[in-house]
Specification:
Layout (H helix, E strand, L loop, with lengths): L1 E6 L12 H8 L4 E6 L12 E2 L9 E2 L1 H15 L3 E11 L2 H7 L4 E6 L8 H6 L2 E4 L9 H12 L32 E2 L2 E2 L9 H19 L1 H11 L2
Parallel strand pairs: 1-2, 1-6, 5-6, 5-7
Antiparallel strand pairs: 3-4, 8-9
Helix pairs in contact: 6-7
Bound molecules: S-adenosylmethionine (SAM).
The site of S-adenosylmethionine has 20 residues, from β5.
Length: 232
């Protein structure tokens, strides 16, 4: 799979692509991450990528030309991709969306800055808008990393045996049950005894129950979805 990131801060990705799951997946040849700088595509002699908003108002807007040309030129070289504009007003990122994206051959993650993109960019590129959540960051780079990492760990062979994507939170609209490791007691806090019982059936049942309790308490919205799915 190819992940193309378009940004004015390519340097933010230099450690990211070498580290942990993404670094391992790149080494294993499962994923390629290419980072492109909008400024390299700007027709302005000072490599400017932004301008003042029509109609007035604070801040600067990312211009069409460098953004559109950056994506188009890269697609000319690498082939077409599913194009995603990172914006707070986009469709909220979810595990379902990550799973869907992980099945694409190529995705382009287009990072905004300042007051965001010229609104025509979306239409011109035929891009979709994705949000990392209902909050405002200063740029789309961290959301692009969220997507790159979330997608990469779903690619077959990317995860080592120490990390499993089985039974993680959001499977079945439930949060994951609590996990514990050694020692059995720490500062007076003991782990639930059932986990040392050796009875795998009981442990599985306990985990399922804990998972439901936790979801009901922390994410009642998810719990309702789970109940509707299972009619229980
Ligand atoms: C300061 S924000 C612009 C916010 C814009 N004026 C608005 O209110 O929608 C600058 C850039 O950060 C990125 N960004 C900020 N919050 C985001 C979020 N929750 N999800 C995805 N991208 C985000 C977007 O790329 C955005 O263009």
């Amino acid at each position: 799979m190819e992940i193309h990131v378009h940004t004015i801060f390519p340097e933010l990705f230099s450690e990211f692509v070498k580290t942990s799951i993404v670094g391992i997946a790149i080494e294993r040849g499962l994923v390629n991450v290419y980072v492109h700088d909008f400024r390299d595509y700007s027709d302005d002699k000072h490599r400017k990528v932004d301008d003042t908003p029509f109609g007035g108002g604070p801040g600067m807007i990312l211009r069409c030309q460098p953004v559109v040309d950056s994506v188009r030129e890269v697609e000319k070289k690498f082939g077409s991709s599913r194009k995603i504009l990172l914006t707070p007003s986009g469709k909220p990122l979810s595990q379902t969306m990550l799973a869907e994206l992980s099945r694409e051959k190529s995705i382009s993650l287009i990072c905004g800055r300042y007051e965001g993109f010229d609104a025509r960019i979306r239409t011109i590129l035929g891009a979709e808008e994705v949000s990392a959540g209902d909050y405002i960051l200063s740029g789309g780079e961290v959301p692009a990393m969220l997507i790159a990492e979330g997608v990469t760990r779903l690619i077959e062979g990317a995860l080592g045996s120490e990390e499993s994507k089985e039974k993680e939170s959001f499977e079945d609209n439930l949060l994951e049950s609590p996990g514990y490791t050694k020692p059995r007691e720490y500062e007076g806090h003991r782990i639930p005894g059932i986990l040392c019982s050796g009875d795998h059936g009981k442990i599985e049942g306990w985990r399922k129950e804990q998972s439901k309790l936790k979801t009901r308490e922390i994410r009642p919205d998810l719990y309702e979805k789970h109940k509707r799915q299972h009619c229980d």
